[in-house]
């Protein structure tokens, strides 16, 4: 049976319409509802299903962020994780702490916990970077299976989402990193009895600086602005019309 | 007004569960809406003579069913939002047209 | 609810028919305690005519099972007073005669009890407490008490419920759907005996 580690991120709730802060340097987080990144929920659910199928012996949930990240970890525990590790940092996890820093931190935890299976969301809905999983696999020096729509640990195969549809790939061995796509599963909802019981599960706290000295990734946010309202699209009747438009209006072919 | 009767524990538990789920319920008025609707539903029969255990449990079971429905709405809404936000460029009709375009390009080569 | 039998909500904990109490930890039937009740139902001789202690009783499901199966006396113990009150009410709801029921709301860890059987459901729930509770239960077992521990295989329990520690698995039951829903990630529960 394998040990499973899942990364979970606390982000602005998917239903919140974000505002840009007045200094145009970030999204305004004051009084904004936060919750677990939806793709992380899918990662947690997959881990819990592995445990329920007796393919996993233990699930460790890891989150990086301010004190409130513990609420997100409690949700993960309520969904069925066994214990949690909170890595504390004052850096804003939506922009100051990028995928590189996160991957280094998770790799440092993985070195201590030696999980066989690491599952993270394919991306977070705040930064939308979508590369933490890949970078983590690189730092851990293990195989990666990204955009997983189905994970089969026995057959060592993963069905993954691609632009054209899905493909099945096999991975050589565990440990490996998997990133969860939307179709991997439908995550369960953390109910009241589960939330109450999750309060007693073990949660360790480690300062980010004690794990990784350099968390920077060399990027600087210059300006944050709202997207321009999109011009209305046009419906093309058939392929000929599409070709015509691509040729004469967009000039791309 | 008559003195308020103690809230049966099962009903109190139901309301607690409703408030927890209500935080995520997708409605324009959010929590206040959930509070209002659930309070109304839970107090509707308040003045009826005390329920027999079985009758109360039947009502509570209906309440729990409604909670599961609310959770379903939350999950569906979130799934759809993610799908629209990250996958709708995979519009099937458009994909079909792109595939045909690709095929024509191959033929014309 | 009258008897812990297949028609009873305590027996088949269903979200629509829970134990009739709200609030914290005594409000739910716990998987370990449910497992002990199941085990006793299959092996009533374990408690018949015995003095039983339902340690960390919660809602009291395993103690009530023991009483109904013929235990001479069942003491419900929990450090939470409200839980003990809940046990008392559940015992009354199940028509247990008063002289068969005892209530104790203090921390018994370390004490020498007069029990012949100790039922301990879900006691390794908090990693920090598990060691001291199991140490005490082992001492009681050495004094000749039959100690049954119910546990659904939690991460915090695993180090304390191994065969090499003198804790022997006696039975294992799949959890009913409602208990699975309330305990995400758990699918079965076991009953262990702490060997003397």
TrEMBL record, chain A:
Q: What is its main location?
A: mitochondrion
Q: Which CDD domains match?
A: ETF_beta
Query: A Pfam family matched by this chain, by name?
Result: ETF
The residues covered by the Electron transfer flavoprotein alpha/beta-subunit N-terminal domain are 24-215
**Known Gene3D superfamilies for this protein?**
HUPs
Cell compartment(s), UniProt = Mitochondrion matrix
Its keywords, alphabetically, are:
Electron transport, Mitochondrion, Transport
Indicate whether Transmembrane helix appears among the record's keywords. no
What protein family does this chain belong to?
Belongs to the ETF beta-subunit/FixA family.
- Tell me how this protein assembles: Heterodimer of an alpha and a beta subunit.
Q: What does this protein do?
A: The electron transfer flavoprotein serves as a specific electron acceptor for several dehydrogenases, including five acyl-CoA dehydrogenases, glutaryl-CoA and sarcosine dehydrogenase. It transfers the electrons to the main mitochondrial respiratory chain via ETF-ubiquinone oxidoreductase (ETF dehydrogenase).
The identity of this protein, by name, is: Electron transfer flavoprotein subunit beta
Gene source species: Tetraparma gracilis
TrEMBL record, chain B:
Q: Which InterPro entries match?
A: ETFRF1
Its protein name is LYR motif-containing protein 5
Q: Which organism is it from?
A: Tetraparma gracilis
TrEMBL record, chain C:
Which superkingdom is the protein from? Eukaryota
Keywords annotated in UniProt: Methyltransferase, Transferase
Coiled coil start-end: none
Kindly indicate whether the keyword Transferase belongs to this entry: yes
Signal peptide region: none
InterPro entries reported for this sequence: Ribosomal_L11_MeTrfase_PrmA, SAM-dependent_MTases_sf
Asked if the Swiss-Prot or TrEMBL record annotates the protein with the keyword Protein transport, the reply is no
**Which Gene3D superfamilies does this one have?**
Vaccinia Virus protein VP39
Q: Which family does the record assign?
A: Belongs to the methyltransferase superfamily. ETFBKMT family.
Q: What is this protein called?
A: ETFB lysine methyltransferase
Species source reads Tetraparma gracilis
